[in-house]
Design brief:
It holds the Pfam family Citrate_synt. This protein is an all-alpha fold. The chain has helices at residues 10-13, 28-50, 60-64, 93-99, 111-120, 126-138, 144-152, 159-169, 175-182, 189-216, 231-239, 246-257, 266-275, 281-292, 300-315, 321-333, 351-361, 364-367, 370-389, 400-409, 418-439, 452-459; strands spanning 6-7, 78-81, 85-88, 122-123. The protein has one domain (72-443): Citrate Synthase, domain 1. The protein starts with 5 loop residues before the first strand and ends with a helix. The protein binds carboxymethyldethia coenzyme *A.
């Protein structure tokens, strides 16, 4: 049955797209062809009327403090409110869970539905989501040169390093790079970029699964892509768990809600910066993956699990809040950060953490798992400890505090691999913005840098 199509975006809906689409089945390209001219006109009007209007002050703390809070990027697909957390085109995670299509027989949002929402600002019909699933499945096979490259890498090479290399090597077939070489018009950039982005998202599961199999389960045959199931179903199947494993529903949720987190986070921003040079989407996203591989960003989910397992080993049975408190202080006093806590923008518990915790609450097997219990207990103790420690601006759990322990429960125990899953997900948002940057003709990013002496001179006497 076709689901009623709604326009989701607060930004999109401000008069521009505030009309209901007929419940016809469009391709994602056709949906974009409809919305792009309206956004282009909106941007042109803003530029004409307000190019010189002021959005805020640039303070010294912005320049020396990682640009936190500096309003300096255009990014439409998601907004991160410090207290409320992420919204995708105006929809919160619970809204998405209610409105976006699930897999047949499943409950969780599928990646295709989230991708459609991010790209177009619209909630797709079920038929549109299924059509996109099929398109991605049809485009999902890896070219031989990428298979050969990945198979030739040492299994001791970190899975994220391998993922970035595989993604970069996919640029061999870049439609954008080929078209640019032939001399296309600027107005056509987005359409070739879209081709690359769809192809890349389609191929990420096969690439990520191949890395997993080579490193952790060598010698087993990887199943072929099933054209009748969704992207994540195929991913889990290729990982070797079977498409109907409980892990599939978890990863559907995980991949949908990790898809985008505003534009300024390190991975998305890297894709945007590199993409602004007109590097093709494969090169842009490869660079983004290496930002995601940093321990302060995506690698934190691997760090959290390692840290919680060490805590479990150290504390033994009968873990109490008091014992967890002591362990947290031990981490802090050794000069380390508590992984999975704090955030550059959020000032409340991360709603992605809450969504993953709720996933656990409805499943008795997960609730009974001692590691999942420990994560829950830690989240009850850590905020007070971090407040007392007094450094972090946000003492609450972020998404990484919960994500790894469920993977571990379901048998995906190789935590060096966890950031790869994050990398499969973040492509949804980062590549969406690449399409839009080209559609809107955004220029090369080139902020002004200043020396310490230049800053001192500028602020003297203020
Ligand atoms: N444990 C201990 N100290 C922490 C802390 C934590 N979890 N989070 C922040 N702090 C410290 C910072 O190191 C900083 O100390 P210094 O002043 O000595 O440098 C101080 O508190 C202020 O930091 P902040 O402004 O609150 O946080 P930042 O914006 O600088 O950093 C983040 C944000 C996520 C890197 C940081 O909270 C952190 O390191 N957390 C642990 C790693 C983690 O969970 N990362 C995952 C992020 C999620 C995502 O990528 O989406």
């Amino acid at each position: 049955m076709l689901r009623q199509t709604r326009f989701a975006s607060r930004h999109f809906s401000q008069g521009i797209l505030a009309q209901r689409r007929m419940a016809s089945t469009k391709t994602i390209r056709e949906a974009l062809e409809e919305v792009i001219p309206k956004k282009q006109a909106q941007l042109a009007a803003l530029k004409a009327r307000h190019s010189q209007s002021v959005l805020g002050d640039v303070k010294v703390e912005h320049v020396i403090g990682g640009m936190r809070g500096l309003k300096a990027m255009l990014w439409d697909a998601s907004v991160l409110d410090p207290l409320e957390g992420i919204r995708f085109h105006g929809l919160s995670i619970p809204d998405c869970q209610k409105q976006l299509t699930a897999a047949p027989g499943g409950k969780e949002i599928i990646a295709e539905s989230m991708l459609w929402l991010l790209l177009t600002g619209q909630v797709p019909t079920e038929a549109e989501t299924r059509q996109l699933s099929r398109e991605l499945a049809e485009k999902g096979d890896l070219p031989k040169h990428v298979i050969d490259l990945i198979d030739s890498l040492p299994t001791t090479l970190h899975p994220m390093t391998q993922l970035g290399m595989g993604v970069a090597a996919l640029n061999h077939d870049s439609k954008f790079a080929a078209a640019y070489e032939e001399g296309i018009k600027k107005s056509e950039y987005w359409t070739h970029t879209l081709d690359d982005c769809i192809n890349l998202i389609a191929r990420l599961p096969a690439l990520a699964a191949r890395i997993y199999r080579n490193v952790y389960k060598p010698g087993q045959e990887i199943p072929a892509i099933n054209k009748d199931i969704d992207l994540v179903g195929n991913y889990v199947n290729m990982l070797g768990f079977g498409a109907n494993h409980d892990l599939t529903e978890y990863l559907r949720l995980y991949i949908a809600i990790h898809g985008d987190h505003e534009g300024g986070n390190a991975s998305a921003h890297t894709a945007h910066l590199v993409g602004s040079t007109l590097a093709d989407p494969y090169l842009s996203y490869s660079a983004a993956l290496y930002a995601l591989a940093g321990p302060l960003h995506g690698l934190a989910n691997q760090e959290v699990l390692r840290w919680q397992l060490d805590m479990q080993k150290e504390l033994g049975n009968n873990i109490t809040h008091e014992k967890i408190k002591e362990s947290l202080w031990k981490t802090l006093k050794s000069g380390r950060v508590v992984p999975g806590y704090g955030h550059g923008v959020l000032r409340n518990p991360d709603p992605r953490f809450v969504a993953l915790q709720e996933f656990c609450l409805t499943r008795p097997d997960l609730l009974a798992d001692p590691v999942i219990q420990l994560v829950k207990q830690t989240s009850e103790v850590a905020p007070d400890v971090l407040k007392e420690h007094g450094k972090t601006k946000n003492p609450y759990p972020n998404v990484d505090a919960a994500s790894g322990c469920v993977l571990y429960h379901y048998g995906l125990t190789e935590f060096k691999y966890y950031t790869v899953i994050f990398g499969v997900s973040r492509a949804l948002g980062a590549l969406t913005q690449l399409v839009w940057a080209r559609a809107l003709g955004l220029p090369l990013e080139r902020p002004k840098s200043l020396s310490l002496e230049a800053i001192e001179k500028l602020v003297e006497g203020q």
